Structures are given as C-alpha cells and as structure tokens.
Amino acid sequence: MKNITVIGSGTMGNGIAHTFAQHGFEVSLIDINTSALDKAVQTIANNLDRQLKKGSINEQDKADTLGRIKTYTDIKEGAANAHLVIEAATENREIKLQLFKQLSDICGDEVILASNTSSISITEIAAVTKNPGQVIGMHFMNPVPVMKLVEVIKGYATTNAVIQTIMQLAKALDKDPVEVNDYPGFVANRILMPMINEAIYTLYEGVAGVEEIDTVMKLGMAHPMGPLQLADFIGLDVCLAILKVLYEGFGNQKYAPCPLLVNMVTAGHRGVKTGSGFYKYTAGSKTLVVADKFS
Ligand SMILES: NC(=O)c1ccc[n+]([C@@H]2O[C@H](COP(=O)([O-])OP(=O)(O)OC[C@H]3O[C@@H](n4cnc5c(N)ncnc54)[C@H](O)[C@@H]3O)[C@@H](O)[C@H]2O)c1
Q1: Do residues 1 and 84 touch, judged by C-beta distance below 8 A?
Q2: From ligand 1's centre to the CA of 10, what distance in Å?
Q3: Cα(212) to centroid(ligand 1), Å
Q4: Which atom of ligand 1 is least distant from the CA of 90?
Q5: Residue 151's pLDDT band (boundaries 50, 70, 90)?
Q6: Domain architecture of the chain: domains with CATH
Q7: What crossing angle do the helices spanning 188-204 and 227-234 adopt, rounded to 10°?
Q8: Catalytic: which of 9, 104, 189, 197?
Q9: 6 C-alpha vs ligand 1 centroid, how far in Å?
Q10: Does the beta carbon of 32 lie inside 6 Å of ligand 1?
Q11: Residue 237: CB within 6 Å of ligand 1?
Q12: What distance in Å separates the CA atoms of residue 86 and residue 41, rounded to the nearest whole number?
C-alpha cells in the first residue's frame, strides 16, 4: 500500500496527509477548491517547521514530506491511483454518502475506502458502495501528527482482512489502533461529547464561567485542557453534528445538544477555526482569552 488519497483538507485532512507523507506514503489531497488546498499545504509546512524547531525532523525530511503531497480538486483524478482512500470531509451524512457513491464508481474492488467520521454510521456509508466489505472507519484524533490513538471502526460488513490491513497500517504510522464496533459515536465520542455538552449546559445555566469550568476539569480531573477549550479545538460545528447523531441514534434526551451550542454554531462562532468560540483566538497569541460574550 503506497498511494493514499485523502478527501477534505481541513483540520483533520491536512493532519492525515501530513502523517502519511512523513511516513513515506504518496498522498493525493482533495478538496472542493484550491484556496482550501493552499491553506492546508501552508498549515502542513508550518507544522513541519514546528517539528524542525523541536529537532524531531531535519530540513530534508520536511522537503521530502511536502514533496509527497499532491493536491486535486477533481475526485476522479485524485483517487485514480489510490490503494486506500480516507475521507475527512465535513461531518455531514449527505456529503459523505455522495462521496462514497462516487468513490465506489471510481476505485477498483480491491481499494479500501475509509472514513474519518466522528460519528456517522460506517454501515450506512458502506451500504451505498458496491463493496461494503471494503469500507471501514479510520478515526484519527486531533492533532493527527501528535495523537497516538486511531479508533478503527468495523462496519456490519467490513471484512476481517480489511480490519487487519488498517490495524497494521496504523501501527506503521506509529499509532496505537483500537478496534471498536459501529454504533453511534463509536467509543471516543460517545463518552467525550456528553461531557462537553454537560460543560456547555453548566455554562448555559450559570453554574460557573468558562475559565472556572475548564479549571475544575484540568486541575481536578488532570485533563490536559478543559472541555470548553477542547470543544473550540474540535470545532463547535463538529461537536453539534456529533451530538445530533448520538441524539438521533439512541433516541435519548440525555444527548440533546445544549441550546447555547446551537446558537453559537448558528451565529458562526465555531471555535479555533473561526477565531472565536468559548475563547478568542488571534494568530500568535499564546494566552487564552475568554470570548467577550462570556467575560
Ligand atoms: N475536528 C476534529 O477534532 C475531528 C476529530 C476526529 C474526526 N473528525 C472528523 O473528520 C472529518 C473532517 O473534520 P474537520 O474538523 O477536518 O472539518 P473541517 O471543517 O476543518 O474540514 C472539512 C473539509 O472538507 C471539505 N469538503 C467538504 N465537502 C467536500 C467534498 N465533497 N469533497 C472534498 N472536500 C470536501 C471542506 O471544504 C473542508 O476543507 C469529519 O468527519 C469530522 O467529524 C474531526
């Protein structure tokens, strides 16, 4: 397996492309427009510079990694030679089903089609393809080059051979894969999102402020960052989309997204990627500042 196609060049797609390229794979990175792709390549270059400064890679590694990434806006061109496709497009069921239908037509029967979805059913995605046995979840964590976990999700039809290939591939990327079954939110987000949602409810109900809630969880539970800051990093739109999948999938009120989260996403405050969520983010700023709305 040498040629990897990554669809979607946002927060996760650029990290996945970076990680594969750094481990010697040829990467085709696809997005809907060139500005998204340019931004992704710039982000990868900046992240490689950070690794360079730390001394974990040298100039040659940086050049080789960037040299292995080609960008495309045409899915047919970008997926033509793929041995494995990893879809990391927006967390939206219709977008993903449409992409997998197209991939099923473009790619040969032996190609593995993986989704980095945080919550959408792998079984449902697989059902729109010609070879559901070749479809699997490969759920990387953010930031991809740093985080060790890959949640490997077995759809109803995923073959054992495909699972073993993806488990081995994750290890080749120096990651620690964990195999789980396909139910809403899998394991990671089924546990994480209710905690984030409860933190937002705690703010919404005026129990405590942004910094107080995050400090309780950081200092009291030894979490490396508080749940509200983590929500900003994940993207508030992504959190909302995952909570909706849990709510619909289990039909249980306990997963109902907090109205404050809904309002923030509707108002365009999606966290780090838009510069504002529970905190404000300005380029180069190292100190966290609570967003005006909550200060
Ligand atoms: N953000 C996280 O922390 C995180 C963690 C794990 C998994 N995920 C999952 O990864 C996926 C991507 O999330 P993200 O945070 O990178 O989102 P993002 O919004 O940062 O990026 C999504 C990208 O997909 C592109 N896109 C949309 N439709 C497309 C199409 N038809 N073809 C090609 N590109 C298309 C968009 O232009 C955008 O650049 C989602 O399924 C999400 O649930 C996110």
Answers
A1: yes
A2: 5
A3: 30
A4: 22
A5: very high
A6: 3-181 (3.40.50.720), 189-294 (1.10.1040.10)
A7: 120
A8: 189
A9: 11
A10: yes
A11: no
A12: 17
User: Could you say which of 104, 115, 116, 118 is catalytic?
Assistant: 118
Our answer to whether residue 160 is catalytic in this structure is no
Residue 189 Cβ inside 6 Å of ligand 1? The answer reads no
Type of residue found at 269: H
Spatial strand order of the sheet with 84-87 comes to: 69-72, 26-30, 3-7, 84-87, 112-115, 135-140, 149-154, 176-181
Contacts 24+ apart (CB under 8 A), 267-270: 269/236, 269/293, 270/235, 270/236, 270/237
In one-letter notation, the amino acid at residue 221 is M
Location of structure tokens 């060139």: 34
Tens-place pLDDT, residues 103-121: 999 999 999 999 999 989 9
pTM over 0.90: yes
| Strand residues in the chain grouped as ranges (E) | 3-7, 26-30, 69-72, 84-87, 112-115, 135-140, 149-154, 176-181, 279-280, 289-290
Could you tell me the pLDDT band of residue 47, with boundaries at 50, 70 and 90? very high
Q: Mark whether 252 is an active-site residue.
A: no
Query: Pseudo-torsion of CA 258, 259, 264, 265, nearest 10°?
Result: 80
Residue 228 tokens, joined:
């509200």
pLDDT tens-digit readout, 193-231 = 999 999 999 999 999 999 999 999 999 999 999 999 999
Rg (CA), the chain: 19
291 to 54, 239, 288: CA distances (angstroms) = 31, 18, 9
